[in-house]
Design a protein that fits this description.
Low-confidence stretches: 1-11, 13-18
Shape: elongated
Number of strands: 2
Strand content: under 5%
Helix content: 40-55%
Largest sheet: 2 strands, antiparallel
Structural class: mainly alpha
Order of helices and strands: HHHHHHEEH
Radius of gyration: 17 Å
Mean pLDDT: 88
Distance between the termini: 29 Å
Length: about 200
């Protein structure tokens, strides 16, 4: 599959009059979280043998490879949501009080593995990449694209809103935190696979 080109416009959402860009603190937190969740994911899969990479705990459970593919697919999905769906319609800053205290909640809710969810059809792993290296190259390029966007965007993300099934209504910045939390969620799933009694020793 063709990898994602690491390039983007500084602004992917429609310009909004009076919308304030992210603060230095908000940018710093999101970048640090995106970098940390990526590092945790890469650490979790480092050094796995082909047998470990493809081991399935049960016929209806994902392997490490399938978890990794889902992570890579979702990374693109979150960026596309910011670029297209959050850009639709006018900004609605009057909704800010409803989501003002949800930054931490987003990360907590996404990491909660007791809450089971079914992936949408487009995010179900089907072996889209020819191998592990190609998959990880795609993920890293996608994650770099999102980090670069956070560092440079002047979009008024705090005045754009969309609901997520785990958190209810959240703003555009919180969707970025959610993307990071999604990687942490499935990194935890990978650790569950590795902890299975039948997981190959090598």
């Amino acid at each position: 599959m063709k990898t994602v080109a690491v390039c983007l416009s500084v602004t992917i959402l429609s310009p909004v009059v009076f919308a304030q860009p992210l603060t230095t603190s908000e940018r710093g937190r999101a970048v640090a979280e995106l970098q940390a969740s990526r590092a945790a994911f890469l650490d979790a899969i480092r050094g796995l043998s082909p047998a470990q990479w493809s081991f399935k705990p049960a016929p209806d459970r994902w392997s490490v490879a399938e978890c990794a593919e889902h992570i890579a697919l979702a990374e693109d999905s979150y960026f596309n949501l910011l670029a297209k769906q959050l850009a639709a319609g006018p900004a609605t800053p009057e909704k800010r009080p409803e989501v003002a205290d949800k930054d931490d909640l987003v990360l907590k809710a996404m990491g909660d593995r007791t809450s089971k969810r079914v992936a949408g059809e487009s995010l179900v792993p089907t072996g889209r990449w020819p191998g592990r290296e190609a998959l990880l190259d795609h993920f890293n390029q996608s994650r770099n694209r999102l980090i670069d966007y956070v560092k440079s965007t002047q979009d008024g993300l705090r005045t754009r809103f969309r609901a997520h099934r785990a958190t209810g209504l959240i703003d555009g910045y919180q969707w970025i935190l959610l993307a990071s939390g999604h990687v942490r969620r499935h990194t935890a799933q990978i650790e569950e696979v590795k902890a299975h009694p039948a997981f190959p020793k090598k």
